[in-house]
Specification:
The chain is mainly beta and 202 residues long. The chain has 1 helix and 16 strands.
Length: 202
């Protein structure tokens, strides 16, 4: 009987000790931040883009290499998405420029379009601009000795502010809109690679 009493007391003490052991604190499992799914939009080559010149360029002071500033006049839509919004800046440059000068010559200028600057992405574009001034008029002037001389003055070629220019996307472009800033990704990013065909007999 005495042994039984001691056994019961020892068992009760063990249960109390077990109850006093605090449960292990649950370790929080870090949750990985969700990566946004790519939002890829293909901008095909030869997509038309309407531009407008934002400042005048004249053969009076332009020379080869002079930059020409333009902007997108109408948004470029792919489906319902405005891939290139209106107002997006674009750039071209003067290729040749001949001043009007005298003798009735008219100025001539040619320029090429270079790219549209969509955020940090430069979208190459094709297109050329050519301009020719009007033929000069004849004016009279009295020279020394009472002689009358005729002077022909030509007009400079100009690309006027507000002039509308047509351009085209120069190559296939794929843009990723999933982040805060648009990125250009490889043109084959939207093409899924099929799994290899199973080998017979394996």
């Amino acid at each position: 009987g005495l042994i039984m009493i001691f056994s019961l007391m020892a068992f009760a003490g063990l249960c109390t000790a077990v109850q006093d052991v605090p449960a292990a604190a649950a370790t929080p499992v870090p949750v990985a931040a969700a990566t946004p799914a790519p939002m890829l939009v293909a901008l095909p080559r030869d997509t038309p883009v309407e531009l407008i010149a934002t400042r005048e360029v004249s053969t009076a002071d332009a020379k080869p290499g002079t930059p020409i500033k333009l902007q997108v006049r109408r948004p470029v839509l792919i489906g319902d998405r405005a891939v290139i919004p209106a107002g997006t800046p674009a750039w071209g440059e003067v290729v040749t420029a001949t001043d009007a000068g005298g003798l009735g010559k008219s100025g001539k200028m040619t320029a090429r379009l270079k790219h549209i600057q969509l955020g940090e992405v430069a979208i190459p574009i094709d297109g050329e601009i050519s301009s020719k001034g009007r033929a000069g008029s004849v004016a009279g002037a009295v020279l020394t000795g009472g002689l009358v001389g005729l002077f022909h003055r030509g007009n400079n070629a100009k690309i006027k502010a507000g002039e509308i220019v047509s351009s085209f996307v120069a190559e296939d472009i794929v843009l990723d809109f999933s982040g805060t800033a648009v990125r250009r990704v490889p043109a084959d990013a939207t093409v899924a690679t099929p799994p290899p065909a199973p080998v017979a007999g394996t």
